[in-house]
Amino acid sequence: MQFDVSLADIRAAGQRIAGRVRATPVHVSPTVSARLGTETVLKLECLQEAGSFKVRGCFNKLLAMSPAQRARGVVTVSGGNHAIAVSQVAEALGAKALVLMPKTVAPFNIALTEAAGGTVELCEDAIAAFAKADAYAAGGRTNVHSYDDPLIIAGHGTLGLELAEQASGLTHLFISIGGGGFAAGVGAAMKALNPDLHIIGVETEGATTMTEALAAGKPVPMRPTSIARTLGAPFATERTMAAARLFLDEIVVVPDAEAVRELVWLLQNERVLVEPAAACVLAAALLRREMFGAGAKVGLILCGSNVALDDLETWRTRFGV
Fold this sequence. Notes:
Blueprint: H1 7-17, E1 26-28, H2 30-36, E2 39-43, H3 54-64, H4 67-72, E3 74-77, H5 81-92, E4 97-102, H6 107-115, E5 119-123, H7 126-138, E6 142-143, H8 150-166, E7 172-176, H9 181-193, E8 198-204, H10 209-216, H11 238-247, E9 250-254, H12 256-269, H13 276-287, E10 297-301, H14 309-319
Helix pairs in contact: 1-3, 1-8, 3-5, 3-8, 5-6, 8-9, 9-11, 12-13, 12-14
């Protein structure tokens, strides 16, 4: 299929969600710039409402629904940030959110989702949860897909509009990939505004959903094993694959250990707590730093901060960080 989200769609999303989400800060990091050998800016989307970029797409989706649709409630599949965001956005708009999660999901994410107002139902795995979501949708709830939805993608793309205003002249941008909706929206916005920008997608070992799909030429069901749980989409889609082909120059896959190493480094040196799904972009930029020529200006999107300190302690012990 052809990718179906335009710059006009993203600008419309920006108008729709104005005042509902934070304009998260950007700053040039002297310490990261020194490590990469070129000027580097950090986009601190980890400071967004509900702890990640996900509220951008969720507000755009739910605000586009009719009052009658919202009254019937929404259902979604997620074991992480999308679950938290849908729950918080639905609560803010007076809707009921049912969140279907794999039974292996972290208790921390269940607690955050329920605290945000969502009702959690556990399923055998993500693939079973998606099937059950279709059944609930047939019963009247709106299925808010976490990444294969033009309204969700356009909402996420508002980060690209924001970043383009905050940090002009970027030559390279590193962005995490789960199911691919975030990279699709940001890529659509930023490539439209700066066609020469090099966008590098990042996955972690054990969560190579997009890499596998592009290699096969079709979506490939996966059971992710990476500790970067918010990158653990069970499949890419034809829509997000089309966006990846259009906007991504390459995908870099980094080990979990390096994502944890950079998570700890960012906490100690930048004083910001992020998830492995965010820290992996710094790990990828370090792996690819030889690509930065004279005058390069690099952007790193730190996309989320919903991480349990108990998990961090476990990962540090496991990887010797």
